[in-house]
Write a structure and sequence with these properties.
Helix content is 0%, strand content 53%. With 114 residues, it is mainly beta.
């Protein structure tokens, strides 16, 4: 079971960009699916994006982030990424890295000011 540590969060103005990283404690080569979730204050945790290794890498995005966010993984570095562009105040949340049925990261705060 891998441990996950997110980084890259912070405060950014609307329209800006951030790149989140999720470093795994071990190899992710054999992990089929990895994902990013987020949880805003007073709201349920929601799926932001997911990526699988099947068929060269299938990605899936929440409608609210399509065209603005991009998920990727670097198996050589055991790291998952989330590139976030054109950020909006409603993207403000704690972002979590997730390996299904294994691990959650501790989360990294993203705050987008208007």
């Amino acid at each position: 079971q891998v441990q996950l540590v997110e980084s890259g969060g912070g405060l950014v103005q609307a329209g800006g960009s951030l790149r989140l990283s999720c470093a795994a404690s071990g190899s992710i080569v054999n992990i089929n699916t990895m994902a990013w979730y987020r949880q805003a204050p007073g709201k349920q945790r929601e799926l932001v994006a997911a990526i699988t290794t099947a068929a060269g890498g299938i990605t899936n995005y929440a409608d609210s982030v399509k065209g603005r966010f991009a998920i990727s993984r670097d198996n050589a570095k055991n790291t998952l990424y989330l590139q976030m562009n054109s950020l909006k105040p409603e993207d403000t949340a704690v972002y979590y890295c997730y390996v299904p049925f294994q691990s959650w990261g501790q989360g990294t705060q993203v705050t987008v000011s208007s």
